[in-house]
Amino acid sequence: MRIKYTISIVFFVALQFHLTFSITPISFQIPQTPLQSSGSSHILLKHNGSLTTLSRRHILLLATTRTGSSFVGEFFNQQGDNMFYLFEPLWHVERMLTLETGGTNATAAARAYRDVLQQLFLCDFTLLESFIDPPPVDHITTGLFRRESSSSLCEESVCSPFIKGVFERYHCRTRRCGPLNLTMASESCLQKEHRVIKSVRVRQLETLRPLAEDPRLDVKFIQLVRDPRAVLASRMVAFAAKYKNWKQWAMDGDVPIDDDEVRKLKGNCDNIRMSAEVGLRQPPWLRRRYMLVRYEDIARFPMRKATEMYRFAGIPLAPQVKSWILKNTQASKEASGVYSTQKNSSEQVEKWRFSLPFKIAQVVQKVCGPTLKLFGYKFVNSEEMLTDRSISLIDEKVFSFV
Ligand SMILES: *[C@@H]1O[C@H](CO)[C@@H](O)[C@H](O)[C@H]1NC(C)=O
Ligand SMILES: *[C@@H]1O[C@H](CO)[C@@H](O)[C@H](O)[C@H]1NC(C)=O
Ligand SMILES: *[C@@H]1O[C@H](CO)[C@@H](O)[C@H](O)[C@H]1NC(C)=O
Ligand SMILES: *[C@@H]1O[C@H](CO)[C@@H](O)[C@H](O)[C@H]1NC(C)=O
């Protein structure tokens, strides 16, 4: 089996080598690779003709807003030259669907999310382009959401010349770049060893099953969760206008339990829990492809959790990721804005206990009870317990996977 396999590879490489000698590196996929059970194997032809096997990884970081997903996404974004990282590409899809249909058709949205993600993992921006508004012209856009949050969209090969006076505001991390040429982005993506996409918009893991079953991808999912009480407290600050009812109820000390907003909270909690239940159940299509991570654990043990996530992903943890984590989890630097990731993470993670009124915490416990239980978040039964720092609200819990 092995010998036969080797022979066929050598033959294929020889053929490729002959046809495309001048284009290096060449990276192509071996169908149904028997060498490794996980990770699509690729043969990389180096300039000097030597062969190196590498495994391309596709990781989807799934979360909801205010769960620390920008921070955790940065763990992968900092990986460097071998990583293509995209920050919330589905923002465009959600926005377009909301404008066009009010965003009420969850089935249609789930399909669009799934199809866009599938293409993006293959470095194809075509479908995403159809959701960008205004539409890109000749694959050029100034409107990609948070481009500067992706190192790979700001590196030199993707940075078209900056024209003074035209796009003055376009700061792309350490560079000033002109509008984004998505063809260049796609070319850069194809050169990268690994691809990671972060999204807070996928509602049900189950809807992504076709991605898990796509042999070109060998995709892995990391679901990031956080205490729903902390999430609500954080949203009430970050999305003040949208959460004005909650703020009013917090002041009144009274919550109309059958209000739409409360139902929405319950719906969100149920979606997160059901996704996790599917993942933890490990159906065949998800075997070795799902990992559950609590933000609280990342905040308390960032290096340990980063190491676990990278091990699960099958990617060696780069030194620059380690130093980024050290720099951004210890320093009690001045936080700059609500999206800041530079905070003393173990301190931040408990802050909500002093801003969320007990009444509101009780409501969350009532409608999100099963979610709290599944993830190991302790219920509080008094104002005193809520604000007593010596009582941990996090059960030490290990979620088995792999
Ligand atoms: C070819 O280059 C790779 C590094 O790109 C190196 O590891 C390998 O030893 C080289 N092989 C030969 C035959 O020079
Ligand atoms: C929602 O979208 C799906 C898939 O596009 C479609 O089949 C269905 O008819 C839509 N439902 C409504 C109520 O528009
Ligand atoms: C965008 O990039 C592609 C690939 O590098 C190039 O062929 C194309 O001319 C670029 N488009 C523009 C408008 O510069
Ligand atoms: C971060 O916060 C925790 C909890 O308040 C504290 O014990 C720790 O010393 C802080 N670390 C730094 C570097 O400020």
Automatic annotation (TrEMBL):
Q: What is the lineage of its organism?
A: Eukaryota, Metazoa, Chordata, Craniata, Vertebrata
Its membrane topology? Single-pass type II membrane protein
**Which organism does this record belong to?**
Myripristis murdjan (pinecone soldierfish)
Q: Name one GO molecular function term.
A: keratan sulfotransferase activity
Q: Which PANTHER family match?
A: CARBOHYDRATE SULFOTRANSFERASE (PTHR10704), CARBOHYDRATE SULFOTRANSFERASE 3 (PTHR10704:SF60)
* EC nos: 2.8.2.-
Q: Show the SUPFAM superfamilies listed in the entry.
A: P-loop containing nucleoside triphosphate hydrolases
Cited Gene3D superfamilies: P-loop containing nucleotide triphosphate hydrolases
Location (main, coarse):
Golgi
Q: Give the Sulfotransferase domain ranges.
A: 57-375
The entry assigns this protein to a family as follows: Belongs to the sulfotransferase 1 family. Gal/GlcNAc/GalNAc subfamily.
Does the keyword field hold Membrane?
yes
UniProt keywords (A-Z) are:
Carbohydrate metabolism, Glycoprotein, Golgi apparatus, Membrane, Signal-anchor, Transferase, Transmembrane, Transmembrane helix
| Reaction equation(s) it catalyzes | chondroitin beta-D-glucuronate + n 3'-phosphoadenylyl sulfate = chondroitin 6'-sulfate + n adenosine 3',5'-bisphosphate + n H(+); 3'-phosphoadenylyl sulfate + keratan = adenosine 3',5'-bisphosphate + keratan 6'-sulfate
- Signal peptide annotation: none
Known InterPro entries for this protein?
Carbohydrate_sulfotransferase (IPR016469), Gal/GlcNAc/GalNAc_ST (IPR051135), P-loop_NTPase (IPR027417), Sulfotransferase_dom (IPR000863)
One GO biological process term: sulfur compound metabolic process
Q: What is this protein called?
A: Sulfotransferase
This chain is encoded by the gene named CHST3
> Which Pfam families does the record match to this protein?
Sulfotransfer_1
Record's subcellular location: Golgi apparatus membrane
* Keyword match Transferase: yes
Of the GO CC terms on this record, one is: Golgi membrane
